[in-house]
Specification:
By secondary structure, the chain is mostly beta strands. It is built from no helices and five strands. Helices cover 0% and strands 40% of the residues.
């Protein structure tokens, strides 16, 4: 679970952030809880949902270096 405490995430020489899902798979009606282990403690982040292309895009503001994002799963995601 994400909280306000700083965590030193590993750094790599790229701009990728490996997201961590709370489950392997989901069904419509469930919500996916996704941990975002951000390298920068604060700032904007572009979140996209993709399935053969971009289904949804949103800019969120990270308030710490780990955030948990809840994404409602809908039929269009499967």
């Amino acid at each position: 679970m994400a909280d306000d405490e700083f965590v030193a995430w590993p750094r790599e020489n790229n701009d990728r952030i490996e997201l961590v899902a709370d489950k392997q798979s989901y069904t419509p009606g469930e919500s996916a809880r996704i941990l975002i282990p951000a390298r920068s403690p604060r700032g904007p982040a572009l979140v996209t949902i993709r399935r053969g292309g971009v289904l949804d895009a949103e800019v969120i503001t990270l308030t710490g270096n780990s955030e948990t994002l809840e994404i409602p799963i809908v039929r269009g995601h499967i």
